[in-house]
């Protein structure tokens, strides 16, 4: 433990997810791939593009050109309403895909901005046909990933329409816990790269409500929070509070 009482929690900006723990692993490393296949994939996938904090990976209206995956750091996606207000649509952690919504349109429907210095892998969409023609399972894997995204947004819609403030925050924290664990990080201790305002925007809550909920969860022994550092102390109670176990698991399909 450090003097502040925190264990050595890895910050996402400092740790890169391994290829094996990445959402694109099934795309980039198909079973039985030989040296020629891997050489083909390496010629298509652009690895380790660095995006600084506050820098956009893409903006709404940009021509759709690529599918992206976070290697390290974290990315926020959002859309702007007609009045110019921002609606957060997701927080993308190491090993997770983004940019898929652009497949059905010529332009990107939303924007993506780095919450911290991040490293990105990129698959140019105009090279997808090359991979599909040479890798029999590539198309099926891409469809599976698209299906996961649909499930994620369906679950988010249900969460925002039916759940209380406590249930929404509990579901988000459990979703993050599951996603961190899936990528080989701690499931109970992590830093939140997103602001309280972003969390409130994403969950449809006022920032004051989010801050009040964090304080209440801390007081009730559900977690310890020190600014962006969070330690989940009672996962079982959080699961009960979140309601249906499918909620946070489906929300974790990012």
Query: Roughly how many Å is the radius of gyration?
Result: 19 Å
Work out the strand percent. 15-25%
Shape, principal axes of CA atoms? globular
Number of strands: 11
Q: Quickly name the level 1 CATH class of the largest domain.
A: Mainly Beta
What spatial order of strands do you see in the largest sheet?
A: 1-8-3-6
Domain count, please report it.
2
Helix content: 25-40%
Unreliable residue runs: 1-5
**How does the major sheet shape up?**
4 strands, antiparallel
CATH superfamily of the largest domain: Jelly Rolls
Distance between the ends: 31 Å
Number of helices: 9
Summarize the helices and strands and which ones pair or pack.
Elements: H1 25-28, H2 35-44, E1 46-51, E2 56-58, E3 66-72, E4 75-80, E5 86-92, E6 97-98, E7 111-114, E8 118-124, H3 128-134, H4 138-162, H5 165-182, E9 189-191, H6 196-203, H7 207-219, E10 223-226, E11 229-232, H8 235-242, H9 245-251
């Amino acid at each position: 433990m450090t003097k502040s009482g925190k264990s050595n929690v890895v910050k996402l900006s400092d740790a890169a997810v391994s290829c094996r723990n990445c959402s694109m692993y099934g795309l980039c490393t198909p079973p039985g791939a030989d040296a020629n296949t891997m050489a083909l994939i390496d010629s298509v996938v652009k690895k380790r593009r660095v995006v600084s904090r506050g820098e956009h990976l893409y903006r709404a209206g940009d021509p759709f050109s690529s599918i992206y995956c976070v290697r390290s750091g974290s990315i926020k996606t959002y859309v702007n309403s007609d009045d110019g207000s921002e609606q957060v649509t997701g927080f993308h952690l190491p090993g997770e895909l983004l940019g898929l919504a652009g497949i059905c349109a010529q332009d990107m429907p939303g924007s993506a901005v780095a919450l911290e210095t991040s490293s990105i892998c990129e698959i140019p969409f105009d090279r997808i046909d090359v991979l599909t023609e040479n890798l029999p399972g590539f198309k099926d894997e891409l469809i599976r990933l698209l299906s996961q995204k649909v499930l994620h947004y369906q679950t988010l819609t249900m969460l925002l329409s039916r759940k209380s403030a406590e249930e929404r925050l509990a579901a988000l924290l459990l979703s993050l816990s599951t996603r961190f664990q899936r990528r080989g990080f701690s499931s109970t201790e992590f830093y939140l790269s997103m602001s309280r305002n972003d969390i409130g925007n994403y969950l449809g809550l006022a920032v004051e409500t989010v801050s009040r909920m964090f304080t209440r969860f801390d007081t009730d022994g559900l977690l310890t929070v020190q600014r962006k550092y969070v330690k989940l102390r009672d996962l079982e109670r959080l699961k009960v509070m979140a309601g249906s176990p499918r909620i946070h698991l489906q929300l974790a399909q990012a």
